[in-house]
Amino acid sequence: MKFSKKIVIGILLIQILSSLVHSYLNHYQYSTVLKTTIEKKKYDINYIVENVFNELKEKYSKYAKELLINPKILEAFANADRQELYRLSEPIYKSLKRSDKYLNIMNFYTADTDAFLRMNKPEKFGDNLKDFRKMIVKTNETKEAQYGIESGKYGVYYRIMFPVFKEGVHIGAFEFGVDIKYLTELSHLILIDMLSKTTVSRA
Hints:
The chain is α+β, with helices and mostly antiparallel strands. The protein folds into two domains: 2-52 and 183-202, no CATH class; 71-180, Beta-Lactamase.
């Protein structure tokens, strides 16, 4: 199931609203402060979320393109050599995870939308995802990159997905997935900033 950015922004606004109500509940000016702050920050949140998605898209698109020109990786994938593909991809996966704790997903899928290799769960493969992973289906059908939030068997992620070609022949799809908890942490940072600025303005 694919989630819209409006839903994500709505969740963040609910979290912020709940925290602000708790913070100002015992203060006679809390309703005015809440209204003014939330009206302003909902636009800030939309801007921040949009920019976060764009940054993730650019960052992991770069990594994916670099990985998908590696001839040994392409050869292993094309030959359905799962063990060799894992061996070649593991150092890359570990390096990226060290730099981003929210990167969990680095997957390879066949042109038939079967899970060929999940780097986070290499023992889980062979299941067909056609019925509920629409981004994989669309990537394989259109042979174009896809970006967005989508839930899978192991959670909800912001996904960056590319078709994979070897010598011009389409052989499947490749995906990075960043845990949606990244946005939860971002909302906490926004909340701290909101409260600190509101406190200063009232001092």
